[in-house]
């Protein structure tokens, strides 16, 4: 029996030592796991922070996606028909800059209207860190339809919109802008409210002390609609590189030639004849359709190369570029093949006809309701999925190959559209 006691003692010691070792190993492992877990958490956190920083940096560099809320800071009447609206972002985050000449796209909730309304307005001030500015002219009924409803959004902005209200705004966009890297002389041709992007271009250059030669040819009816009259006179007096030539087509009794305006009548390209031989000149046109066509065709007739002429249409395009004419003619020839346009959701098949300018017009004439905003290929509101077939878009309207901007697109084959 005596020999059993030491054996039992040894066994107990081994057991206790084993348990101690097991406990130490488990604790050590748990500690390691804990450290690893903490490391993992720390590295995840670090990644998250890095990602967040990167996201913030990118957001500051890039304009935003979709609509962003802006507060109407103030509204200033510019003349009897137009007002300027100053906008600041509701989130107080930095304002991305823009190229002078570009526009903003807005979504308005107009009282009494069930659906929001989308419109584009050009930025009318130079780029700055504090605000965006647009200038909106009341749009009257067409002269041949005086009883038609007056322009919805332009009257809402001029008569109802108030400081403090919040509106949805897409980031600055558009392909009509001045290349700030160039130094060549420019001619800005503005008809009526087409002065807005020109004002932005002028202010962008002069605020940056650019020595680029700027000639502004501004055609309008009379002093009641002379938007930016005082500002332009001030700038022309202050900066030698800005020259302005103003035409009044319908001066009122108190309008003085030489004081309020330079020449009576309509602005045409003929006035530019003495300078047109300068090959480095570039031309920027914006105004009502007749003004734009007159100036564009006049410049082409005087031998100005099409590439030197840039223009912005505030509504359905009125100019057919000479360099696009072959392509457009090609489409017209093809369209005599009676393309069949299928609007799948509406379950309607319609034969395309040249009497329509675009697919939106075709749809509306056949009582297919499509969304639309600018009707000039700028805002994207009328975009539809192109399920089958091929369409032709003008140069400035950017659409993916499987999409179709119906307000400017014409068919190049039979089509299936998701509408
Ligand atoms: C890129 C771009 C930039 C622009 N920049 C500016 C700018 O800086 N400043 C500016 O003032 N505008 C600008 N515009 C024009 C602007 O977007 C609007 O088109 C303009 O304000 C008219 O919109 P509205 O809602 O007032 O008129 P809408 O209600 O769209 O009416 C347009 C016209 O149709 C007529 N009309 C309405 N209903 C009928 C009907 N049932 N039958 C017959 N006729 C009818 C109206 O009387 C009006 O003449 C720009 C447009 C684009 C595309
Ligand atoms: S309505 Fe704006 S792009 Fe067609």
Keyphrases for this structure?
binds FE2/S2 (inorganic) cluster, Ubiquitin-like (UB roll), 6-stranded parallel sheet, 419 residues, Elongation Factor Tu (Ef-tu), domain 3, 7 helices, single chain, 3 domains, Rossmann fold, binds flavin-adenine dinucleotide, 6-stranded antiparallel sheet, alpha/beta, 23% strand, globular
In words, what does this structure look like?
With 419 residues, the chain is α/β, with parallel strands linked by helices. It has 3 domains: 67-170, Translation factors (Elongation Factor Tu (Ef-tu), domain 3, Beta Barrel); 186-312, Nucleotide-binding domain of ferredoxin-NADP reductase (FNR) module (Rossmann fold); 329-417, Beta-grasp domain (Ubiquitin-like (UB roll)). It has helices spanning 4-61, 152-159, 195-207, 229-238, 289-301, 325-335, 359-365, and strands at residues 67-77, 82-89, 103-108, 117-122, 132-137, 166-170, 186-191, 214-220, 242-248, 263-264, 282-286, 309-312, 340-343, 348-351, 383-388, 391-392, 403-405, 410-411, 415-417. The strands form 4 sheets. A 6-stranded antiparallel sheet has the order 4-3-6-1-2-5. Strand 3 (103-108) and strand 4 (117-122) form a beta hairpin. The longest helix has 58 residues, at 4-61. The termini are far apart. Mean pLDDT is 86; it is low at 37-61 and 324-335.
């Amino acid at each position: 029996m005596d020999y059993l006691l030491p054996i039992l003692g040894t066994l107990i010691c081994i057991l206790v030592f084993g348990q101690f070792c097991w406990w130490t190993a488990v604790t050590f492992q748990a500690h390691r796991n804990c450290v690893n877990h903490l490391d993992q958490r720390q590295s995840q956190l670090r990644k998250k922070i890095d990602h967040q920083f990167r996201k913030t940096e990118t957001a500051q560099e890039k304009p935003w996606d979709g609509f962003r809320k802006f507060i109407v800071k103030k509204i200033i009447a510019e003349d009897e028909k137009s007002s300027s609206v100053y906008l600041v972002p509701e989130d107080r985050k930095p304002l991305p800059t823009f190229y002078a000449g570009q526009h903003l796209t807005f979504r308005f909730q107009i009282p009494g209207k069930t659906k929001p309304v989308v419109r584009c307005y050009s930025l009318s001030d130079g780029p700055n860190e504090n605000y965006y500015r647009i200038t909106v002219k009341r749009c009257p009924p067409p002269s041949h339809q005086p009883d038609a409803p007056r322009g919805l959004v332009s009257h809402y902005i001029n008569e109802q919109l108030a400081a403090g209200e919040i509106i949805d705004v897409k980031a600055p966009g558009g392909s009509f802008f001045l290349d700030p890297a160039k130094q060549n002389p420019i001619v800005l041709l503005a008809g009526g409210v087409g002065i807005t992007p020109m004002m932005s271009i002028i202010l962008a250059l002069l605020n940056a002390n650019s020595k680029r030669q700027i000639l502004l040819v501004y055609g309008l009816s009379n002093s009641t609609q002379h938007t930016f009259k005082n500002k332009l006179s001030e700038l022309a007096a202050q900066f030698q590189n800005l020259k302005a030539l103003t035409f009044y087509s319908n001066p009122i009794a108190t309008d003085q030639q030489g004081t309020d305006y330079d020449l009576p009548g309509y602005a045409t390209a003929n006035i530019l004849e003495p300078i047109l031989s300068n090959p480095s000149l570039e031309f920027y046109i914006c105004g009502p359709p007749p003004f734009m066509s007159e100036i564009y065709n006049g410049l082409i007739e005087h031998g100005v190369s099409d590439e030197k002429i840039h223009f912005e249409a505030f509504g359905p395009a009125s100019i057919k570029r000479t360099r696009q004419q072959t392509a457009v003619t090609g489409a017209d020839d093809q369209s005599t093949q009676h393309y069949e346009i299928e609007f799948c959701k509406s379950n309607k098949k319609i034969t395309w006809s040249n009497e329509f300018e675009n697919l939106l017009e075709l749809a509306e004439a056949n009582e297919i309701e499509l969304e639309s905003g600018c009707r000039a290929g700028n805002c994207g509101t009328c975009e539809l999925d192109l399920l089958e077939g091929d369409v032709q878009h003008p140069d400035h309207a950017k659409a993916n190959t499987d999409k179709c901007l119906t307000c400017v697109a014409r068919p190049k084959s039979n089509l299936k559209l998701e509408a």
